[in-house]
Design a protein that fits this description.
Blueprint (H helix, E strand, L loop, with lengths): L3 E4 L12 H4 L12 H13 L4 E5 L6 H11 L3 E6 L5 H16 L4 E6 L6 H12 L4 E6 L3 H4 L2 H5 L1 E5 L5 H16 L19 H11 L3 H15 L6 H8 L11 H15 L3 H13 L4 H16 L5 H16 L5 H13 L5 H16 L14 H5 L45
Parallel strand pairs: 2-5, 2-6, 3-4, 4-5
Antiparallel strand pairs: 1-3
Length: about 425
């Protein structure tokens, strides 16, 4: 059936020719590297004999599929896995029908849905009643924020666990297990004297593998296996690693959770006057394929929101960067964008534009549509003049300092109310 694969608790001995990542998949909680906080809670749940539906949210290669298998194994459940990319409502109905049969025999069914965020609302609605009545225990895996991608009723019936990208030392543990596996002779074969020369890695190559894997255990093991094949009997070198990985795997999705996290980091780094972090986060976005004009728009907003009147020239710099990036395109667009990011990060900061507009909005919500004072109204016709439109208006340029004394510009009922929220760093403040 399309999109469905029935998996009983993980096999004790994977096929000898299975990918390295599969051969090293942990078979006990104790063997899992990383995610200690989450693992401890999940272990307690399985020991209690009650496994609720679970959503595992985390980056690629953080152990979501492995944890799903361990949860099924530890609770002696039948596990059915499907990918949300290929499965449909018909596949779900068949799984539910089979689960009902097994339930009558006293066998629990764990339904593992990989990339559950790819299921549309109708597909998620289809599984909801069967999660509610306990026909299946759902384990969903997603790289996207489930708050946005999983329907509220299904989310409320599940426990969400956030997995983190593996730390460098944790990833190194995984890689060294992989080296030991590659160095051992195939099952059923007698170790040869030369076996100790297999799957050796140079220190700088190990560093390159850990860096290039970006915390993804699957990428690290796949890269190690490919590099070992390229190296043959030689020690694995940086060149072997680079050829195996082909390119770095930047964690960034232009429509997903990583996108919003990194954009937030860029904004807060500029606001916090940290030029190093500002350029770093902007480079993370651009190197991962972000539209440079999206970055330029964020810089324009920052110039007005966070630099503002403390340095009014900042908005001109940001707009010039936007125009330059549009004109030259990538990769040269990184230069005007970097110049603008540095300028904004180093500039003095004022958010008076943001706070003043907010004050005006609150005043409008409080008082409604107050009429325009008669002396401020335009009077293009004789009839309007006869009705008092424009009467008593004082032309500012006719007065000393360019300010008409005692002229009120707010509605009559709002006379004396303040909207402008000055910042001590604002330039050209009204006296």
């Amino acid at each position: 059936m399309a999109g469905q694969e029935e998996l009983f608790p993980l096999p004790a001995a994977p096929e000898p020719n299975a990918p390295l990542a599969t051969r090293l998949r942990p078979k006990r909680f104790e063997d899992l590297v990383g995610q200690r906080r989450v693992v401890e809670v999940l272990r307690q749940l399985t020991q209690s004999g009650h496994l609720p539906s679970v959503v595992l949210w985390g980056p690629p290669g953080s152990g979501k599929t492995t944890l799903a298998g361990l949860l099924a194994t530890e609770t002696s459940a039948r596990m059915v896995a499907m990918s949300a990319v290929t499965a449909g409502v018909a596949d779900l109905r068949k799984v539910v029908a089979e689960a009902k049969v097994h339930r009558r025999a006293g066998i629990r069914t764990v339904l593992f849905i990989d990339e559950i965020h790819r299921f549309n609302k109708a597909q998620q609605d289809a599984i909801l009643p069967h999660v509610e009545d306990g026909t299946v225990t759902l384990i969903g895996a997603t790289t996207e924020n489930p708050s946005f991608e999983v329907i509220a009723p299904l989310l409320s019936r599940s426990r969400v666990f956030r997995l983190e990208q593996l730390e460098r030392d944790e990833l190194e543990q995984v890689v060294r297990r992989g080296l030991a596996e590659l160095a051992s002779p195939p099952r059923g074969e007698v170790a040869q004297s030369a076996g100790g020369d297999r799957a050796r890695i140079e220190d700088d190559a190990l560093g390159a593998l850990l860096e290039g894997s970006r915390g993804d255990a699957r990428v690290a093991l796949n890269g190690l296996e490919a590099a070992a094949a390229l190296a043959g009997e030689e020690a694995i070198s940086v060149d072997h690693i680079e050829r195996a990985l082909q390119q770095s795997h930047l964690l960034y999705d232009r429509a997903g959770d990583q996108h919003y996290d990194i954009v937030s980091a860029l904004i807060k780094s500029v606001r916090g006057s940290d030029p190093d972090a500002a350029v770093y986060w902007m480079a993370r976005m651009l190197e991962a394929g972000e539209d440079p004009l999206f970055v330029a728009r964020r810089l324009v907003i920052l110039a007005a929101e966070d630099v503002g009147l403390a340095d009014p020239q900042a908005l001109s710099v940001a707009m010039a960067a936007q125009q330059a990036a549009h004109f030259v395109g990538m990769p040269e667009a990184v230069l005007p964008l970097t110049e603008a990011a540095l300028y904004l990060a180093l500039a003095p900061k004022s958010n008076s534009a943001l706070t003043s507009y907010g004050a005006a909005r609150e005043l409008i919500q409080e008082t409604g549509n107050e009429p325009v004072p008669m002396h401020l109204r335009n009077a293009p016709t004789g009839l309007m003049k006869s009705m008092g439109y424009g009467k008593g208006y004082k032309y500012a340029h006719d007065h000393e300092g360019g300010v008409a004394p005692e002229q009120v510009h707010l509605p009559e009922k709002l006379k004396g109310r303040k909207v402008y929220r000055p910042n001590p760093r604002d330039k050209n403040q009204a006296k």
